[in-house]
């Protein structure tokens, strides 16, 4: 939703769900849930200030935050898709959900980047409390 256009945003999401149903012949909610599971991060880094230094400490992500990050990254990567290739936002959203279902696309790349950063900083995991 951009600039409070709730009805416009919801109509595009419903159009996307209809397209999922028509093209994949699957239940759209199950398809979307699987795509979101591929986007959700398991760990992330959080800054901790210890002794004047700031360390990036890997911490597990709570389920509510996992969903919040997944939705944010899905919308962000959908907006980055070129308008020239798609007619509506619903088509762009369908393409990004389809990529996420296949573990590809910008949102899955973002998740991999966050988890890779957490893996690189796992030496500081003992600083978590």
Walk me through this protein's architecture.
60% of the residues lie in helices and 12% in strands. It is built from 5 helices and 2 strands; from the N terminus they run ααββααα. A two-stranded antiparallel ribbon has the order 1-2. The radius of gyration is 17 Å and the shape is elongated.
Describe this structure in a few short sentences.
The protein is of the alpha+beta class and about 130 residues long. The protein contains five helices and two strands. The mean pLDDT is about 95.
Mean pLDDT: 93
Percentage of β-strand residues: 5-15%
Give the low-pLDDT segments: none
Question: Which CATH-level-2 architecture?
Answer: Orthogonal Bundle
**Widest beta sheet: strand line-up:** 1-2
CATH topology: Ribosomal Protein S7
Shape from CA axes? elongated
| Rounded radius of gyration (Å) | 17 Å
Give the H and E element order.
HHEEHHH
Return the structural class. Answer: alpha+beta
CATH superfamily, please?
A: Ribosomal protein S7/S5
- The number of distinct structural domains comes to 1
Work out the helix count.
5
What distance separates the N and C termini?
A: 36 Å
SS elements, strand count: 2
- Major sheet attributes: 2 strands, antiparallel
CATH class: Mainly Alpha
Helix content, binned percent: 55-70%
């Amino acid at each position: 939703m951009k600039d409070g256009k709730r009805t416009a945003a919801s109509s595009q999401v419903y159009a996307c769900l209809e397209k999922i149903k028509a093209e994949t012949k699957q239940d759209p909610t199950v398809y979307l849930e699987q795509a979101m599971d591929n986007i959700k991060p398991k760990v992330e880094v959080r800054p901790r200030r210890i002794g004047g230094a700031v360390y990036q400490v890997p911490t597990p992500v709570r389920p509510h935050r996992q969903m919040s990050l997944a939705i944010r990254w899905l919308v962000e990567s959908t907006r980055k898709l070129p308008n020239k290739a798609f007619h509506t936002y619903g088509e762009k959203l369908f393409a990004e959900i389809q990529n996420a279902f296949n573990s590809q696309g910008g949102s899955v790349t973002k998740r991999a980047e966050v988890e890779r950063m957490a893996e690189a900083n796992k030496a500081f995991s003992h600083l978590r409390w």
